[in-house]
Design a protein that fits this description.
globular; alpha+beta; 214 residues; two-stranded antiparallel ribbon
Length: 214
């Protein structure tokens, strides 16, 4: 994640305030992993330490929004859980490692883009929130394996698609895996030149009446 351009955009002061960066990043993932926050599923891949140790390390991680399950159970009026909002309540809104204007622009820009490109699909979709691989473990196929897990979920669960806002790093991976490009999203604070670019993409479970290939 820190190698992704949006990380620098949102957290440009993380080296000046590493304690805040660690605290609130850890807090966010604690919510993702909390069993009571069952709108979220975290999948990881372990691999042998490239330093030569026989010990397995977490090499790659994916975070999935599976709120469609609770929407099926509780109806369309169900309000999905929001770990970011919970982090804000516990001090995240004043974290010193972030540019708060950029942080808020990123969050609101993503929300608007999801509504524009994926809102019409309805709740029957799987959303890929985070996909990251440690540098020492890249180019081993771990990110592809995690994406294929999601592809299998939408096939078995009769979901319509996987939705993702792809960074420049992820765009080529998703394209290779058969994701469709729906549009380009520019996130920028009004009056600033600095911006980040994301790509709205989806992987459909059914293409032209046939199940998509895995």
């Amino acid at each position: 994640m820190p190698l992704d351009p949006q990380w620098d955009y949102r957290f440009p002061l993380r080296k000046e305030f590493p304690e805040d960066h660690y605290k609130y990043t850890r807090m966010l993932f604690e919510y993702f992993l909390d069993p009571s926050f069952d709108d979220w599923t975290v999948m990881v891949i372990e691999d042998l330490d490239p330093a030569g140790s026989e010990k397995l390390k977490i090499a790659s991680i994916s975070v999935w929004d599976v709120s469609y399950l609770n929407k099926r159970k509780n109806g369309l009026d169900y309000v999905p859980q929001d770990p970011n909002r919970e982090v804000d309540k516990r001090g995240g809104s004043t974290r010193r490692d972030a540019n708060q204007q950029h942080f808020n622009a990123f969050r609101s820009g993503q929300a608007k883009a999801y509504q524009k490109y994926f809102g019409g699909i309805g709740p029957e979709q799987l959303r890929l929130q985070i996909l990251a691989t440690l540098p020492d473990f890249q180019r081993r196929g771990h990110a592809t394996t995690l994406c294929r897990w999601g592809m299998d979920v939408i096939r078995r669960g009769s979901l319509k698609d996987i939705s993702v806002m792809a960074s420049p790093m992820g765009y080529h991976l998703y394209t290779r895996l058969g994701f469709d490009h729906l549009g380009t999203v520019i996130i920028r604070v009004l009056g600033e030149e600095e911006k980040i670019t994301l790509q709205a993409m989806k992987y459909a479970s059914v293409v032209d009446g046939e199940s998509a290939n895995l």
